[in-house]
Amino acid sequence: MVAKGGTATTTKTYAVGKPSILYISNENPNAGDSVYIVGAAFKDIQNFVFAGATIGSYTISPDHTTIGFVCPTLAASGIVTITTLYGTVSTTFNVNDVTAGIIGNFEWGNYFGYAWWGGASLDSGNPLLPGNSSQYMRLSGSSMNSGDGASWSTAIRLNAAQWVPTSSLSDKPENWAIKFEMSVPQPWNGATLVIASDITDYVYRFEPWSTPSGAVSISTNGWVTVTIPLSSFRANVSAGDGRGAALSDLTKLVGTTGNSGMYLYMHNYGAAPTETGYFAGFDNVRVVKIK
Prior knowledge:
By secondary structure, the chain is an all-beta fold. The chain is built from one helix and 23 strands. The strands form six sheets. Strands 11, 12, 13, 15, 20 and 23 form a six-stranded antiparallel beta sheet that branches. A hairpin with a 2-residue loop joins strand 5 and strand 6.
């Protein structure tokens, strides 16, 4: 600051600008779970609300990109809102919500979802998948040979449901996303989780073990939320499934009604057997508007 009486300088860096939320580690946590919100400009927080609960105790990373807190008991679903001195950011979707946009929650009733064939097992209370008091699906198998795995054999097959309302089918695919909770307690390396609809021209290949420096075994610390924007689906071409152009028209994925089945299945696209087998739990598969 320069004034008539002289100049004052500080070495402190001030992070100004409206905060933003990139992703939430677990959108449907239990009380006592550690939750992390990743984004930007989480500095000088004035108010922090998670599903209607005011969060008063939290930690912020030194670069102000991550907030961590222990989830309290939540009474309802709701958005996440973070207000700093420089602005407010809110999610467009609810957290602590397993009904909005649901395709399958694997609970007995209208939203069970599973089509009862494929390679999945209905599970609950598995000591290898702690932190989930409901029912969920488990995909498990040994190392896969090259080309192994299909939507009828190593799969969670979900009955047809409304992915996107017909009134929103002209939206950009990036405005909508598939979300689900997943727990991977054992090392996973090499098998691709393929996500597809009844129209199989476009798929998404979920390969969290694939890094720029090569494949590495991954696992999760309990249940986490996976978010896949529908714009991440890519066309099947001669170079490989899901290796073509990105989806630009929602109807090419879910048809003119927006109602489709869904398939989550393991497949080995590699030329050699996978490094590991796979063992993972899946819950609350849903499609929600994110923008």
